[in-house]
Amino acid sequence: MTTPSTYLDFEKPLAELETKIAELETAGGDAIDEEVGKLREKAAKQLETIYSHLNAWQKTQVARHPDRPHFMDYVEGLFDEFVELAGDRKFMNDDAIMGGLARFRGRPVVVIGHEKGRDTATRLKHNFGMGKPEGYRKAVRLIEMAGRFGLPVITLVDTSGAFPGKGGEERGQAEALARSIEASLTLDTPMISVIVGEGGSGGAVALASGNKVLMMEHAVYSVISPEGAASILFHDAKRAKDTAEAMKITAQDLEKFHIVDGVVPEPMGGAHRDPKAAIVRVGDAIEAALSSLKAMTPDELRAQRKERFYAIGREGLA
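User: That's the sequence. What structure does it adopt?
Assistant: Structure tokens below.
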């Protein structure tokens, strides 16, 4: 059950019900068990009602939930024999972007993704998932290695954006992002990208330029955060809710615009309520996407990737 500290604002009615259920369960007794059953049924309906009508700002909150599965959770749940490969061979290792060799359901692959961390210590270690130039250069190294050895690439995207600090700019953040996109678009092997939480700006695109781009049901993907857009447009970050709606950042909107190729359903109440089930669903979606590309030659894979991204926006301009 979700802990009181991790209930989102719009989940308050549900929080009250589940708190009461927990209190009654400690008491026990047949009569109480019957009451608990009724309350559980009511809570399940309340949960379905809430999560069937989420707006863009609420989905943003769900995408940022601290209990959502992170990169290493997916590695542990979906991949065998994971061997992390660190460093960009130019400056240093970046812990915000992790990657390495692994087996995905028996098939050797390269897996790369953003890791945000769980507690204060690990969040600082992983820089809250905000990759620095050396992180994206590490990604380029791994993508190029995958091409040399004929391995598919799987990327798991979850970042508010690339690191915006002085050090990142000094070490060529924009160039590193561009090189990562270039390496992805010219790769000779299949590349599957999944937005599993936040997909923020170039920091997300740099790892999401695959043949197939999927999004989890309550993930978000945008050129800037709703707060950032509201600050620029209205000089008021508090208008993030309205801005999020206008930006069309949800998986459902982006699938309609053909920005993403498919939406991965989450367990009722979001991936944070049942991480194991969410991870399996992502794995099934990745497997299906890989299967759809298995007969394509390197030339066909590059051409498909090129056409996929060139097609974005054409329909709206016609």
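The chain is about 50% helix and 15% strand.
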